[in-house]
UniProtKB/TrEMBL annotation:
PANTHER family: HHE DOMAIN PROTEIN (AFU_ORTHOLOGUE AFUA_4G00730). Gene3D superfamilies: nmb1532 protein domain like. This is Hemerythrin-like domain-containing protein. Residues 8-119 form the Hemerythrin-like domain. It comes from Sphingomonas kaistensis.
Length: 171
């Protein structure tokens, strides 16, 4: 895997493009059943992406990326996770299912913008300040493959629960 893993930014950007495609597929899907299936795929891909950012990418950015920007990004992850959890739990009877996916899409668009923004975004800052993107890419690819395999086998719930990041210290 070490020889074939993309660098960290390429891997994360590929994830962003893949989930954007899924949101488009969701909009184009003709039936509620097809939409529900795609919504689950969106949820799983965002859970895996958020885990590898929270556990590997953002920690590597500490001291290299503006602290306030990183904190904001963690809070945006947690905010998105509220909707991701509801989308995963939603049944056919959820009249708000489409609205939830739409709002999640808007949240993710904003968040991806903050990560990818030229010069001032998190990715630009990290690269400019010397985060080793090749080594990190290997770690991200390994973690991603592991989480995807586990979710395929055991479901996403455990991984969703592991995402909450912005606890207050006393908890
Ligand atoms: Fe991201
Ligand atoms: Fe992120």
């Amino acid at each position: 895997m070490a020889d074939t893993a993309p660098d960290a930014i390429t891997l994360l950007k590929d994830d962003h493009r893949a989930v954007e495609d899924l949101f488009k597929e969701y909009e184009d899907a003709a039936t509620p059943a097809a939409k529900a299936k795609i919504a689950d795929k969106i949820a799983v891909s965002l859970i895996v992406h958020t885990r590898i950012e929270n556990e590997h990418f953002y920690p590597a950015c500490e001291g290299k990326v503006d602290e306030a920007d990183l904190k904001e990004a963690y809070v945006e992850h947690d905010a998105a996770n509220v909707l991701i959890a509801e989308i995963l739990a939603s049944t056919k009877g959820d009249d708000f299912a489409e609205a939830k996916v739409k709002v999640l899409k808007e949240e993710i668009e904003h968040h991806v913008g903050e990560e990818e923004r030229w010069l001032t975004g998190i990715f630009s800052q990290a690269k400019r300040h010397g985060v080793d993107m090749d080594a990190l890419g290997v770690k991200l690819a390994e973690a991603k493959a592991g989480y995807e395999a586990d979710i395929a086998k055991n479901g996403p719930e455990v991984h969703l629960a592991a995402l909450k990041k912005t606890k207050v210290a006393a908890e």
